[in-house]
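User: Predict the structure for this protein chain, please.
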Amino acid sequence: MATLKVIAKAAGVSATTVWRVLNSDSTLSITEEKRRAIIETAASMNYASPRSRKNTNRSALRRVAIVHFLRPEHELVDPYYVSLRLGVERRCQELRMETVRIYNTGSMAEPALLENASGVVAIGSFEADHVDWLARYSRHLVFADFIPANEEFDAVASDLSVAMRKLLAALTQKGYRRIAYIGWSGQADSDPFGEVRCRSYRDWMRTHAEFDPDLCMTEPSPEHNNEQLGYELTKRLLSKVQPDAIVTCNDNVAIGTYRMLNELGVSIPANIAVASFNDIPTAQFLNPPLTTMRLPAEQIGETAVDLLLERLAGREMVKQITLASNIIWRPSCEISATKHDNEKSTAG
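Assistant: Here is the predicted structure, written as C-alpha cells:
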C-alpha cells in the first residue's frame, strides 16, 4: 500500500494535506478539483479510502494525549501554561481530534493512556527518566515549551536564553545598570544559577562586567507559589542592595515583587523598574502595567500539534522549532536613558 508521502508527491501537495483530505477535514482550504485529485490518486495506489480509514482507525488517528508537567492546581494559577494547553486543544479541535489530559500526580500515568493515542504532546520540562518513559509508550512524541538535551525528539519552545539577553540589552540601552534578577533554581537543582533564565542573566552580566551576586536572588520553588516567591525574594534583595531595575523569571513572580515594593513605599518605575517574562493577561492591568517579554504560549501549543500531524503523515526526520519572543514595553520601565543618566549625575 502506498504511503502518504508517495501520494503527496504524485498529487503535488504536502503529506499533511493528503492526511487531512483523506480524513475529511472540512477546515482545510483546498479546491474541490485538488481534493478530488488527491482521493483519486490514493485510490489508484490502493490506499484505503477516507470512509474506510474512519471506520477502522478513527479512535487511533484522532486522539492526542496531553501530558502536563504540572499538577492541575498549579496549572490553574499559571496563565502561561493554561494558554499553552488551550493552544494544543484548540488546534486539535480544528482538526477534529480528541484530547485527553494527563496531569502530574507524582507518579507515572497508566501506559495505556499513551498507547491508545495517536501521539503525545508533553507540556513543560521533564526529567530524563520521565522523558524515557514517555518515549517508551508513545507512538509519536512532541515536547512543547521544552527542548530535550539531545536531538531525538520533536519539540517547540521559545529560547529563554535569547529572550533574557534581548531584555537585558534593551534595559541597558534605556540606561539601567544595576539590574537585579529574581527567580527559582528548579526543584532538584542545587545550582542557584541552574535555571536557564538565571544562568543567562549571570553570563550576560559577567560579559558586560556588571555581575554582582547580591543582585541575583533564587531559591527552589517546589510548590510553584510564584507570587509568594517574588514577594519574599524582593524583600531579601532590598535588604542587601538597591537596584535600578528588577527582572523576574515570570509575571506571577513580578506580582509578588510589586506587592513588596508597594509595602515598602518604593515607586515603580521612578525608584525601581520591573520587567518580566510571559505576558499573561494580568500584566497589562497591574499598576503600573508591567513590561514583559512575550512568549508565544498559544502558538507553541498549536505548533506542537502541527508537528504531531506531520509525524502522522509520515515525516521521519526530527524537527525542533524555536519561536521568537518580543518585548512588550509598558510603564513599569518607562524611564529614558537620558533621564536615568541625568538622575545618576544629580545624585552624584
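The CA atoms of residues 8 and 15 lie 5 Å apart.
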